[in-house]
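[Solved] Which block belongs to which protein?

Original post:
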Amino acid sequence: SDIISDTQSGAWSGYRINGTELFPDYIKLEFLRSDCIFELAPTERGAVIRLEFNGEHEPYLSFLPVKGNYKYRFDEKTSTLFGQTDGHSKDVAVDFKMYFAVRFDSGAVNSERTKCSENCIHMALNCKKTEARIAISYISEEMALLSLEREIGGRSFDEIRAIASERWESCLSRIEIDSDDISQLRTFYSCMYRAFLWPRKFYELDCNNEPIHLNTATFAPSKGVFYTDNGFWDTYRTLYPYLSLIDTELYSAMA
């Protein structure tokens, strides 16, 4: 518990690049200060994380503020942490919130040892090894929970990673290059990977699987798809022509 902190500067931890795995479908690194192996497998609106603590410290998973105000609520019956933040990059947002739901393995959280303070919560864990399933929403807590159930549900970490791997293989196999230069291959597919990250999906699927998004003009839910983080010079000159050749379905949805 001596490494628990309510500030980013106090909660830092280094890791070694050697032995770290960074892939589109998987991240694995070891936080040196807490002696914790951290793994993550992504979904579209969430992720599964796997933690393995190897030191003498009592295991905690901390949620710390980046900016803005945070609120947390833990439901012991479902072992789910609900939270929200109004943090954003500009001052024009009104009534803006990001909601998130984090479901732990049953019995993984020790509520008596869990520590709460302003804008922070430190979830005490009963086991050195545990998994947590995460999803977010810009509309409501209920929508975050819906995405959690739909995209992850009761699937294991390895199952979620396999789904993510299949999705990324579908994207990255659309272009094949012939080269014996491993550095050239890594550079090409790293760039191709990043080309599929933006513009970013800013819509969710309601209970009827219909697309819905937070209208950034009215900050009220609106029907339909929405994409954000669109740098028009780059997308107009390069990304859109590129997508029109290799992913017409995605290109059409963005347009």
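(Second protein starts here: sequence line, then its structure tokens.)
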Amino acid sequence: GHTQRGGTPSAEDRFMASQMGSLAAKALIDGEKEKATVYKDGVVKLAELKDCLVKDDSLFDQFAKLGEMLSI
């Protein structure tokens, strides 16, 4: 598993990555296809790959306005 948040990985980051890697390996062994490991709602689990590719721009305008305010 891989998450990118910046900085040195904490023990929690390393534990989550271990959980994600273990689940990914098990999924491959079990013949799971088109799945990804995700961290959602506080749990590491498998998700349909197609569900991971959905783009959600619902907060874009809010973040764009904040970016404009902070760049003054």
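Accepted answer:
You had them paired correctly. Confirming on the second one: The first helix runs from residue 11 to 29.
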